[in-house]
Amino acid sequence: MELFDHPLAYTTLAHALIVFAAGIRVVTRRAAPGVALAWLFLIVILPFAGAIIYLLMGERRIGARRARRIDALRAALGTHGGVVQPSSFTDVDWSRHPAAAEGLGRLGVAVNGSSTLRGSDIQLYSDTQQALRAIAEDIDRATTGVSMVFYIWNEGGSADEVFAALLRAAHRGVSCRVLVDAVGARPWLRCRQPGQLRAAGVEVVSALPVGPVRSFIARAGQRLHRKIVVVDGDVAWTGSMNLVDPRIFKRSSGVGEWVDAMARLRGPVVAALGATALGDWMLETGTPLDELTRSAGLHDTPPLGKADIQVVSSGPGQSEGGMLQMVLALIAAAREELVITTPYLVPDESVLWALRVAAGRGVRVKIVLPERVDSLLTRHASRSYFDELMDVGMEIFLYRNGLLHTKSIVVDGAISMFGTVNFDMRSLWLNYEVTLFVYDETFAQILRKLQSSYMTDSRRIDPAEWADRPRSQQVLDDTFRLLGPLL
Length: 487
Known about the structure:
Shape: globular
CATH topology of the largest domain: Endonuclease, Chain A
Largest sheet: 15 strands, mixed
Number of helices: 20
Number of strands: 19
Oligomer: single chain
CATH class of the largest domain: Alpha Beta
Structural class: alpha/beta
CATH architecture of the largest domain: 2-Layer Sandwich
């Protein structure tokens, strides 16, 4: 028994028991093998702390109340909730599109209940200043309701034009709602603007609040990463842009200005985006969806454009791997060219192999990433994949004029994916995201042109030079790759 007279022996035994218990919990949750192994690694190398971190962040717990509200939201949408479009709007002429498009449309219904809506108008804004001004102008035209959902809101610059437009709308009697992520928008929530909006009659709510108690009820890392604006049910916006002016946002981080793109939409797709935004509000506040629909002015909008668009939202409790399935199907649909822009590239094994298979089939695969990102861990984890991508002929471009934040995919110049989803496990599994699958060659060509402009301002990685980089750099990248599923 002398062995247990030493305090270290009790500590070691306690750690072993915790590792065993936590290991059983990790295994029985049936996470992807890479994710499970990463968590087991963390639990082993960080005595006690690793198990606590896992309990806080390792599972997709959403809490009983949120689960009940998600069920209520599904029920409301299932009985139309005033926001589902007439069946005539889902009667898409798939013969206008590549053969794979119809299958993608069916998959979206199967994994997300999201039908493709025909006949919407979509305009791409690649200049943040123009996008912020145009959003403010749309809000100034509002007569009924404005609903906004953003991950980050930052005071200052052109973002204040949107803030001022909201104040004016509220003073006109327009019903205005602002939902921001509790973590992403934390600095803004502590400034004077939210109080000024509330004083004017704008409802401001933070989503997914965090705290010591809440972290054991629902995973703290779940974030509302969507960016949506809906005005009077007539106009909607979505894309990669947070409500910030890149000229002043995070300038001390050393990555340059954030480079984003947004889409302005009219037609039937507006109601689908509106349903997503109001659904988020319902989940946070418990307000019935039909009441929100009336006050927001959400309504059926007849076709007025040529684009057929599918709105796919995802997040814990709302879809189990639905966005990942859509991404894999889109990659598999490519026959000639697949172009991706994303700020973060930390794919899981299925995405990695889907990309390799596409390149092996002869598809020209181009991936555009920012040269500098705001996360050291993500930067190194991302670069650990470059060898495996380039050795099958993929081209990787590093954008040099700021933090490229646009999330887009264009397949064969005909099908596009555009929205808030990054190529990492956090976006595909953990965050609440929204993405447009656009079946329209005209928009695809416009988006492809924007992607080309990014490549012009990028450095194409030479595979031979990359293979010759210092061994210490390779080891560092591969080490951070082990934490990739947790980023």
